[in-house]
Amino acid sequence: MGTTLDQPVHARGIAAPRFAAGVERILTVFVNAYMVGAPGEPWVLVDTGLPGFAGAVRGAARRRYGGDARPEAIVLTHGHFDHAGSAIALADEWDVPVYAHRGELPYLTGRSDYPPRDPTVGGALGLMSRTFPTRGVNMGRRVRALPAGGVIAEMPGWRWLHTPGHTAGHVSLYRESDGLLLAGDALATVNQDSALAMVTQRPVLSVPPAPLTTDWGAARDSVRQLAALRPWTIAAGHGRPVSGPDVAEDLADFALRFQPPRRGRYAHEPAQTDHRGVIWVPPPPPDPLPKQLVVAGLVVGAVWALTREKD
Asked: pTM for the full model?
């Protein structure tokens, strides 16, 4: 059961490790990064995975491109900890620029933290999100605004699209020649509301990571924008890539049925941001978990006391 849908859209495309020419996925626990460029040719790293995984990313790059592997640039779909966590370490070692949308720069230059996470939205990821950081980072001279017009010189044949909602400056990347969409967190290809689904990784088109999505109206519009592309392959930040003739129709169906969550901090009012960062966020709703933990503790204590009495 998805957070914003009565039923997620099961992706009928084929989930495969080699899903598109010249692109390879790097999985860091539960989030994807992508190496874009064929072996022997210039390449770009899209997203960098979780903090502490710079070595894993470097190892994947060496295996694919050789011992002196070095990308032309790092491109971030957005700056959340799980997508930009290893960006500074990699950019410093490789001495390459980091590109992000202008709307992400307040959070990547130390000017602002991201809006607070929303664990009250529910689901397995909501429960996990209580430990997720939302602090901004300062990448200094490394980070640059994506060039206007949707073209990145280091990624010929690709264009970037502003797809806000999950964050204000979120972008997706599209290669029209074969219909390949690198969706970042504009949507997911796994149901992150279900702990079982996160383990099995069954392909399903689902909402962006809900606890960190702060404008659901913009998120819905972004999914509709991507559906209009009618992609052949979707490779998102979370879940296995899906590819095939049914993907475009599945995405169109998902876009049509996309609805905001029924509960949560940002369900009815988005966070407000500008070039300085966060301006205002809705007040947090009551969080039932602390009360539930207290009740669980009392129950455990009562059971222990009864056991002691019997002894």
From this structure: 0.90
Residue 274 has φ and ψ, to the nearest 5°, of -150, -160
252-261 pLDDT, tens digit per residue, is 999 999 988 9
Q: Which CATH number fits domain 9-286: 2.10.25.10, 3.40.1160.10, 3.60.15.10, 3.40.1390.10?
A: 3.60.15.10
Give me the residue label for tokens 């397995």: 124
Length of the chain equals 311
Cα separation, 145 vs 120, whole angstroms: 33
- Got the DSSP string for 113-161? PPPPP-GGG-HHHHHHGGG------B-GGGEEEPPGGG--TTSTTEEEE
**pLDDT tens column, 122-141:** 999 999 999 999 999 999 99
Rounded CA gap, 12 and 267, in Å? 29
Q: What are the structural domain ranges in the chain?
A: 9-286
What CA–CA distance (Å, rounded) separates 131 from 267? 21
Q: Is 113 exposed, middle or buried (0-12, 13-18, 19+ CB in 10 A)?
A: middle
